[in-house]
Amino acid sequence: MNAVKRCDGISRRDFLRVGGLAALGLGLGDFFHLQRAFAGKNTLTAKAKSCILIWLDGGPSHLETFDPKPDAPQEVRGPLKTIPTNVTGVRISECLEQTAAIMDKIAIIRSMTSPLGEHSLGTQYLMTGYKPTPALEYPTFGATVAYVRSQNSQNISGDALSALPPNIAVPNFTGQVSGNGYLPSATRQFSVGGDAKRSDFKVRDLDFYQGIDIDRLSRRRQFVNALNEFSSAKDAGAKSVSDPELERAYNLITSPEAKAAFTLSEEPQEVRQRYGTGGVNGIGLSCLLARRLVERDVPFVTVNHAGWDTHQDIFKLKERYPTDRNAHLPSLDRALSALIQDLTDRRMLDETLVVVMGEFGRTPKINSQGGRDHWPNVFSVMLAGGGVQGGQIIGSSDSLGEFPKERPVTPSDLSATIYTLLGIDPSLELHTSDGRPVRVAPDGAKVVLELFA
Which of 62, 289, 441, 452 could lock onto 361 through a cystine, CB 3.0 to 4.6 A? Predict the structure, then answer.
């Protein structure tokens, strides 16, 4: 099993190294100095080819998921119990039983912190790494990855060898951000739609409507391209009238290989049951579809799981009625553990980064309605695969889960870390439509080095 690190990033192996340094007259401060020096010598090797972001829309409670407080007063610890994981000393929510069994593959940051406790602002900060400003709308991770990865391909509506869009949302994207920010609209996420709660979940609009066939769609595409060429010839400064949505639809509908990626009926019933075919908002089949997409080299997939805005009766995260297996936490547990194990079995986990997060956490004290309100001061983010060192907790919150106690990590730091894991330099400069250079991650953002295997 992987060595478990403390919140300061020091493992038992590190302490042995420090002991060796002591023989040379060097102390712990010298160890950190050397560690930082080597960190700048290209020791961070990007392994992730793709990313699956499981977005818990509404703000998941850290106290009911990855940072429970079993020794806190009842009004803080809440109605749920905790369970041990397969990593000694690490406990998580009782509802995450299957996830607890694979904790050695998972890293949890328990000291995330942000000043933004409003849904839209918090979402923008967590999904871009930048605090929102009226002066500029920043692109989300998916759009940035799609754009950067497309620079050496033929176009940005998909890989040169594939009709699949490089940035896909399942079944849809959160309504709090547009997605592409200042980048071209073709980098915006493609939402597959459909009802993921249904056992026969199908992606919408992959077949022709009555009265529309390939010839008619081709003529429309040719017409739009002709208008684009005419506009460019008439005025070099004219805005392009090309339709990236039409182009993506055409590529998908006319490609049997692309359509096959969305055909969940190809999966054995046993696999579908393992992920979960029910559940709130169908997170099980959404995660299964995400695995099928990254298996076909889609760089970024967002699984949007709504309903975590628990101002009332937080116990409903566990069950809405007795013996309920499809509430938020059991559904998340089943889908997340199945996804990580499935990626492991297919030897894809090392190349697939899995991130689980929402826009903020919830208040330490249960409110008068039995729920928890918005709380950005401290919350948790979970990562696995893609070069992440599992079996560790990074940072900590205080005894009430109210503020960071050790190793605070900002959304900007997280963005720099995610981009680095995906092989994108956080200092890379992209450009707005008017030529303004903008870093991929904010200046001053620090990569969380402890995460790297």
Answer: 62
Do residues 429 and 419 lie in contact, with contact meaning Cβ atoms separated by under 8 Å?
no
Element of type H or E holding 167: strand 167-170
CA–CA separation, 4 vs 125, rounded Å?
30
Are 180 and 433 in contact by the 8 Å Cβ rule? The answer is no
Extract the tokens encoding 339. Answer: 């996804």
CB 423, CB 46: distance < 8 Å: yes
Distance CA 68, CA 372 (A): 14
Q: How far is CA 9 from the centre of its chain?
A: 23
CA distances (Å), origin 146, targets 125, 356, 415 = 19, 20, 15
Report the C-alpha gap between 19 and 12 in whole angstroms.
11
- Listed in sequence order, the residues at least 6 apart from 372 whose beta carbon sits closer than 8 Å to its beta carbon are 61, 63, 78, 310, 311, 314, 362, 363, 365, 366
Please state the φ and ψ torsions of residue 168, each to the nearest 5 degrees. Answer: -125, 140
Distances 43 to 6, 38, 65, 118, 147 between C-alpha atoms, Å: 21, 7, 33, 38, 26
- Which pLDDT score is estimated for 243? 57
Reduced to 3 states (helix: H, G, I; strand: E, B; else coil), residue 416 is: helix
What residues form DSSP beta bridges with 312?
Answer: 370
DSSP conformation letters of 305-369: E-----SB-GGGGT-SSTT---SHHHHHHHHHHHHHHHHHHTT-GGGEEEEEE-S-EE-SS--TT
Is there a contact between 177 and 223 (Cβ–Cβ < 8 Å)?
no
Question: Partners of 343 in the beta sheet?
Answer: none
AA letter at 243? D
Return the C-alpha torsion angle 106, 108, 114, 120, nearest 10.
40
Report the predicted TM-score, pTM, of the whole model to 2 decimal places.
Answer: 0.83
pLDDT along the chain (453 residues), means of 10: 45 46 50 48 76 97 98 96 97 98 98 98 98 96 95 51 84 89 92 74 56 50 52 49 62 77 90 83 91 96 96 94 86 97 98 98 97 98 97 98 98 98 96 96 97 90
Residue 53 has φ and ψ, to the nearest 5°, of -100, 115
Q: Hey, what are 256's tokens?
A: 């049997």
Tell me which residue has tokens 């739009």.
224
Residue type, 443: D
pLDDT of residue 376: 98
* Count of beta carbons in the 10 Å neighbourhood of residue 185: 15
- Residue carrying the six token digits 């942000």: 114
